[in-house]
């Protein structure tokens, strides 16, 4: 079982196990071979595909059918899928085939393992899937190198190299695909689930970074800790809400800043401070749901037809991406809200209230201060509003109407990846801005967790007394936000 919490470790363990033991793969293959010997008609094994499903293919052409399937379906366009995500796609595909419900040939399965072990990662265009009959075009591109076609990423990951050249250099010859191989390779949801797994594995860290950024802003703005009181959240027991409140209270422990204004006359903070548990918590619950869906998917058989141990070969619809499409759209909404509320806190840090200098510099006029990083944050939040239109509400028929409902989950996946990047950058801008603001609260110290976060930021970028190249500061924090090292440093009691 591959769990998102330990995505890369579990996947590596699964593939290592498959390298040693392939009993289920061999069992399902024997069933396919027997079906061919008996001459029964089975979709995609000895028939055409899609609207051509009723066309029977002669026995001497079933291998050619599988090669033609890859060639005809490799029509993707657009920027390449990031190399790391393609590696995930490849690993998830092998894991899925290894469940033993696909009937893929031993030679094809072994060659996929060779690619993964040797870190030979095909280059895959990101556009062209409608997310229903599997991610057909992307997976066709991912599979072309098996037959010596298509491209691999080059060794430094900056470009591509023809597959035949890479195979030759590694002592590998192009394969002749067997019956059912091509269909098993391109039926499946590995583009969608690869993107989803990549984003959601990181989102588990990003959620906690959002809490840290909020706690830093709360301290810098001399906000109240009372809205984080455990009793408030016990009477509205959404799990994410309570988890966020607990996390922020922990970050604020030992705060001299909080103690200094305990008896001030301010009654309530703006929602972007007061409602952090409710907003962050709702996103946390939504992302946890989406993670469960993706986790189920990467451990599922999404081929068609499926091969069962009693000899049945059954055509169904496990390749349809609707579960993922809805979950990935939901995840994009949840992530976008973390950025939306973060940008509002950044704005509050700049407005010159609560004893902080306007734009977080004393000598403004000649200096613009932190004005323009907030512009960038606002732009990213606005872009997310466009990206969060759900792709899953759309459908357009293909294959002359045979495939008459599509999930568009691949578009959900690509949009989610962009939203994630935007959210990470918005949170980084809040961390940068809140750190500048906290400098003006000295010599008072924030809570122990907030202090550790402040130190992490300051280890990378200095306090700014005058305008400088903020982009260098921002880029330094971008890589910090979703790093496990940052969370370990901040949450280390």
Could you characterize what this model shows?
The chain has 493 residues and is mainly α. The protein has 20 helices and six strands. The chain has helices at 7-20, 23-38, 62-73, 83-97, 106-117, 136-143, 163-169, 181-186, 190-220, 230-234, 239-252, 256-260, 271-274, 276-298, 322-350, 371-387, 409-439, 448-458, 470-481, 484-491; strands at 77-80, 125-127, 151-153, 160-162, 306-307, 313-314. The strands form three sheets. Strands 1-2 form a two-stranded antiparallel ribbon. Strands 3-4 form a two-stranded antiparallel sheet. Strands 5-6 form a two-stranded antiparallel sheet. Helix 4 (83-97) packs across helix 9, helix 17 packs across helix 19 (470-481) and helix 18 crosses helix 20 (484-491). The two termini are 32 Å apart. The mean pLDDT is 93.
Alpha-carbon distance between the two ends = 32 Å
The SSE order reads HHHEHHEHEEHHHHHHHHEEHHHHHH
CA radius of gyration is: 26 Å
Number of strands: 6
**Low-confidence runs of at least 5 consecutive residues:** none
| Oligomer status | single chain
Strand order of the largest sheet: 1-2
Number of helices: 20
Strand-residue proportion: under 5%
Report the helical percentage: 55-70%
Overall 3D form: elongated
What's the story with the biggest beta sheet? 2 strands, antiparallel
The SS-based structural class is: mainly alpha
Average pLDDT metric: 93
């Amino acid at each position: 079982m591959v769990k998102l919490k330990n995505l890369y470790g579990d996947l590596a363990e699964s593939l290592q196990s498959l390298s040693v033991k392939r009993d289920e793969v061999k069992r399902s293959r024997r069933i396919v071979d027997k079906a061919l010997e008996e001459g029964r008609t089975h979709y995609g094994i000895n028939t055409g595909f899609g609207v051509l499903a009723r066309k029977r293919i002669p026995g001497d052409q079933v291998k050619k059918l599988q090669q033609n399937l890859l060639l005809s379906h490799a029509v993707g366009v657009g920027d390449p899928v990031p190399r790391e995500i393609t590696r995930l796609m490849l690993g998830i595909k092998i894991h899925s085939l290894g469940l033993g419900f696909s009937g893929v040939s031993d030679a094809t399965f072994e060659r996929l393992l060779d690619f993964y072990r040797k870190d030979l990662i095909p280059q895959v265009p990101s556009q062209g899937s409608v997310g229903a009959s599997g991610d057909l075009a992307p997976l066709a591109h991912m599979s072309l190198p098996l037959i010596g076609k298509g491209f691999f990423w080059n060794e430094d990951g900056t470009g591509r190299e023809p597959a035949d050249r890479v195979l030759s250099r590694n002592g590998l010859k192009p394969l002749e695909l067997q019956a059912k191989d091509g269909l098993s390779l391109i039926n499946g949801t590995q583009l969608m689930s690869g993107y989803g797994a990549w984003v959601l594995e990181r989102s588990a860290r990003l959620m906690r970074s959002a809490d840290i950024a909020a706690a830093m802003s709360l301290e810098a703005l001399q906000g109240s800790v009372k809205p984080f009181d455990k009793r408030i959240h016990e009477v509205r027991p959404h799990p994410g809400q309570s988890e966020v409140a607990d996390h922020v209270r922990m970050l604020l422990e030992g705060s001299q800043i909080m103690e200094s204004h305990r008896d001030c006359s301010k009654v309530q903070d703006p929602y972007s401070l007061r409602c952090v548990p409710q907003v962050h918590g709702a996103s946390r619950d939504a992302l946890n749901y989406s993670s469960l869906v993706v986790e189920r998917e990467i451990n599922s058989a999404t081929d068609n037809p499926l091969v069962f141990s009693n000899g049945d070969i059954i055509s169904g619809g496990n390749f349809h991406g609707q579960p993922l499409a809805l979950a990935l759209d939901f995840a994009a909404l949840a992530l976008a809200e973390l950025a939306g509320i973060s940008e509002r806190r950044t704005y509050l840090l700049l407005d010159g209230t609560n004893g902080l200098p306007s734009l977080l510099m004393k000598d403004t006029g000649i200096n613009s201060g932190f004005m323009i990083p907030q512009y960038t944050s606002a732009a990213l939040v606005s872009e997310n509003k466009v990206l969060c239109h759900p792709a899953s509400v759309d459908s357009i028929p293909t294959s002359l109407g045979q495939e008459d409902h599509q999930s568009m989950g691949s578009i959900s996946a690509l949009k989610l990846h962009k939203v994630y990047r935007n959210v990470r950058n918005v949170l980084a801008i809040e961390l940068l801005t809140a750190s500048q603001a906290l400098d003006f609260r000295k010599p008072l110290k924030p809570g122990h967790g907030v202090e550790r976060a402040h130190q992490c930021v300051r280890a990378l970028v200095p306090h700014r007394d005058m305008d400088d190249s903020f982009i260098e500061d921002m880029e330094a924090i971008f890589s910090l936000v979703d790093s496990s090292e940052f969370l370990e440093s901040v949450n280390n009691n």
